[in-house]
Amino acid sequence: MSRDLFKKYNEKRDFGITAEPKGKAGKRAKTNLRFVIQLHEATRIHYDFRLEWHGVMKSWAVIKGPSYDPADKRLAVRTEDHPMDYNDFEGVISEKQYGAGPVMIWDKGTWVPEDDPDKMQKKGRITFIIEGSRMKGQWHLVRMHTPDKRENWLLIKSKDDFALNKTKNADFLKRENTSIVTGRTMDDIRKAEPGKTTKHAKASKLEPVKTAPKDKKAVSEPKASLKVN
């Protein structure tokens, strides 16, 4: 079963070259579900947003990164499932490998789904609370109905205690630009040898955050398509 689950993931990688973990399913947890966001400089820079779900990390590539402004609707392209071991990967994916380039652990922590994740995914609206160091409060993933072959979603911040207006949110990603685990910049990681390098650096302690109250306002699903540049 796990082979089929990670067939697409494994076929894209040569594990004799890349230091990324092989695809295998983990234990199915119902509580303390993990999330990770990895800043990835591949063909283009994006943020890989991953949620633990049925022993795998369900993944979306958030092209412009998360925004704390509820007015922003950030395109999140669904990608293949990743193994939970990938949560600890920070380093450089070797040249000529899929996704070649530096990878940073930008944030990590736990997430709490508002309802059964399978039901929410089927409806096309996943609402959840994030408890990380940079990602906090309630968020939504809303599936778009577009003719695109890709599975496009939108990552949207709720109007809760953690939300920011356009002005205060403007420099958020510019300020938060180091690894939450090692404290390194993307340049630091890029200069390191290809491979997983988190184990060579001192990890920083994650500070606990408060859980935001639920936003009971429904999120309207946009009908217009978005073009990825």
From TrEMBL:
Coiled coil: none annotated. It comes from the Bacteria. This is Bifunctional non-homologous end joining protein LigD. Residues 185-196, 204-220 have a biased composition (Basic and acidic residues). Residues 184-229 are annotated as: Disordered. Pfam families: LigD_N. InterPro entries: LigD_PE_domain. Residues 38-143 form the DNA ligase D 3'-phosphoesterase domain.
